Q: What sequence folds into this?
């Protein structure tokens, strides 16, 4: 039986996984066997029609690069080949392709009805093959928490600054050395989300220029740390807005006009936010009633 042989250049690239590619071919033939004689007949016809086997080879190479040495890579490479083959026979019908790799396409030789059923069978068979294993967890990736990769903090800070600077009237130029030192020293129980919330908090408080320590949430600025923005859980937008607006009102002694100037918005916007968020304004600047 003629075997699918990749071109010389690919053969050199795939040389390291060639023994496994042979096993993939064997797995394909083994799993295409059926009591319905037409299925293995067409399966062998497809397999011997050529093909570079790029997809299973890439899967095998990726598994090796990741340090995997078990047998599942060959099985999943066979699954990939089954799915790719099913796609090809279906595509040939849609494209009305009479020839595939120099030979009559499957539907040209056996008809559309049989070819559609064969493609569906190959899809179902590929899933059944994959599910013979207890888990699809061939490669487990672990992303360490932010406290274990503090070198990423300055890069993440730059990213979040760019994000929150969009549309600002007075953009933030950066973070002072003192503020960055606080950011680098924090343990971030809320991981990257906590850092993002902290930078958003600082961007609201900072009128422009450089973020200083007093623009950071209390937990990072040296305060009590009871601000929902810097808690380990993901704060809602409403919590963030309420916390930031309350801090600004305290900073300006309850002056809505001063808060509006710092935020670059109309005072009526601040008034509506105060009312919507149920914030209590310090009595010295509360609206007097007649």
A:
């Amino acid at each position: 039986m003629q075997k699918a042989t990749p071109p010389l250049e690919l053969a050199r690239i795939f040389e390291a996984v060639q023994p496994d590619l042979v096993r993939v071919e064997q797995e394909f033939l083994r799993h295409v066997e059926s009591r319905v004689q037409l299925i293995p007949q067409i399966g062998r016809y497809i397999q011997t029609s050529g093909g570079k086997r790029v997809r299973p080879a890439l899967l095998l190479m990726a598994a090796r690069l990741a340090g995997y040495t078990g047998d599942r890579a060959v099985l999943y490479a066979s699954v990939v080949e089954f799915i790719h083959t099913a796609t090809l026979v279906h595509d040939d019908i849609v494209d009305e392709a009479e020839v595939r790799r120099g030979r009559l396409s499957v539907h040209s030789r056996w008809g559309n009805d049989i070819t559609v059923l064969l493609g569906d069978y190959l899809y179902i068979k590929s899933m059944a093959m994959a599910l013979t294993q207890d888990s699809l967890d061939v490669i487990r990736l672990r992303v360490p928490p932010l406290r274990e990769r503090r070198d990423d903090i300055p890069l993440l800070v730059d990213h979040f600054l760019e994000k929150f600077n969009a549309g600002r009237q007075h953009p933030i130029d950066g973070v002072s050395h003192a503020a960055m030192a606080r950011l680098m020293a924090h343990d971030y129980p809320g991981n990257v989300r906590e850092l993002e919330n902290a930078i958003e908090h600082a961007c609201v408080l900072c009128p422009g220029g450089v973020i200083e320590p007093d623009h950071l949430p209390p937990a990072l600025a040296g305060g009590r740390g009871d601000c929902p923005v810097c808690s380990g859980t993901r704060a809602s937008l409403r919590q963030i807005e309420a916390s930031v607006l309350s801090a600004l009102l305290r900073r300006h002694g309850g002056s809505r006009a001063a808060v509006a100037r710092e935020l670059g918005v109309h005072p009526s916007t601040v008034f509506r936010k105060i009312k919507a968020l149920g914030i209590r304004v310090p009595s010295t600047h509360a609206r007097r009633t007649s």
In short: The longest helix spans residues 72-95. The first strand starts at residue 99 and ends at 100. Confidence is low (pLDDT under 50) at residues 223-235, 285-290.
